[in-house]
Write a structure and sequence with these properties.
The chain is an alpha/beta fold. It has a single domain, classed as TIM Barrel (Alpha-Beta Barrel). About 35% of the residues lie in helices and about 15% in strands. The protein has 10 helices and 8 strands. An 8-stranded parallel beta sheet has the order 1-2-3-4-5-6-7-8. Strand 7, helix 8 and strand 8 form a beta-alpha-beta unit. The longest helix is centred in the C-terminal third of the chain and has 15 residues. The chain is globular and about 45 Å long. The two termini are about 25 Å apart.
């Protein structure tokens, strides 16, 4: 385990009493459990967390603002909750500006995510989607890219067309770890890493492997490639709790990352686990 408090850039929490999650419940019925702040504390009790960022949970569109308001209330209970990545209808183009400006009333909102992984392969290249992304810099918001590996090629084109947006790739682009497939993910990730406005999140990897039979060695070559391409100046740590519980418990994931990065310097680990996250999300 790291010998210092870490920053987790990817924590999901739900409140089914106040917010509806129709899409989530349909996609992951095995996760319709109470995953609130107290449960997160229990699962992460063996890890020293200095700060964390809440990641939107694909709630119903009508409840997106309610989600932000609820998480803001949670931050009053736990000062370590220092950032929110909210959901917004980026595909609305210029019209999304009203929703984004509404979020500016909530200082914890640091970035935006619009799930791409379940959309068509060219969803992110729609002119309206690109126009929506270009609204983000003027409001000082980042964008979390959550895709499947088949969409990575189009994401490269998307990023190239939005050079002023600060992007971060969730879950290393979700490669097919279960089948130990590397191409074209490996080549495309290296191409994405050449673009200076993109960070990468070391997260969500065990859930892309065989949930019941994965090993650390299954993940290691993917970690190595991410480190080789993005380097320690543009990598951050993410726990992806609670989704990660499909395949791994929280302390085990931190331990796995620590194992995969054994031999790295204290300075490099400090960047990955804390400094890059603080700078990227402006915590």
């Amino acid at each position: 385990m790291p010998e210092f408090p870490i920053i987790d850039t990817h924590v999901h929490l739900v409140n089914r009493d106040r917010i509806r999650y129709s899409g989530l419940d349909e996609a992951l019925p095995e996760l319709t459990k109470p995953f609130g702040l107290s449960t997160f504390h229990e699962h992460a009790a063996d890890v020293e967390i200095g700060a964390f960022v809440f990641m939107e949970v694909a709630c119903d569109a009508s409840d997106r603002l309610a989600e932000v308001e609820w998480v803001t209330e949670l931050a009053a209970q736990d000062a370590r909750l220092q950032g929110i990545v909210a959901s917004a209808a980026i595909e609305q183009g210029k019209a999304v500006t009203a929703e984004l400006e509404c979020y500016k009333q909530h200082s914890l909102v640091k970035g935006i995510r619009r799930l791409i992984q379940s959309e068509s392969i060219d969803f992110c290249l729609q002119p309206s989607f690109l126009e929506g992304l270009r609204r983000l810099p003027e409001l000082d918001y980042t964008f979390d890219i959550c895709i499947s590996h088949q969409q990575l090629s189009n994401v490269i084109s998307m990023v190239r067309q939005c050079p002023d947006v600060r992007f971060i790739l969730d879950h290393i682009g979700k490669p097919d770890i279960k089948n130990q497939t590397f191409e074209p993910w490996k080549t495309e990730l290296a191409e994405l890493a050449e673009l200076p406005n993109v960070h990468c999140k070391l997260s969500g990897m065990a859930t892309e492997a065989d949930h019941r039979q994965w090993t650390r060695d299954d993940l290691r070559p993917y970690v190595d490639h991410v480190v080789d391409t993005f380097g320690f100046d543009r990598l951050v740590f993410g726990g992806d709790w609670f989704v990660a519980t499909l395949a791994i418990e929280y302390p085990e994931w931190v331990g796995t990352v620590d194992w995969a990065l054994s031999g790295c310097s204290e300075n490099e680990l400090g960047k990955l686990y804390r400094e890059n996250a603080r700078a990227f999300y402006k915590l």
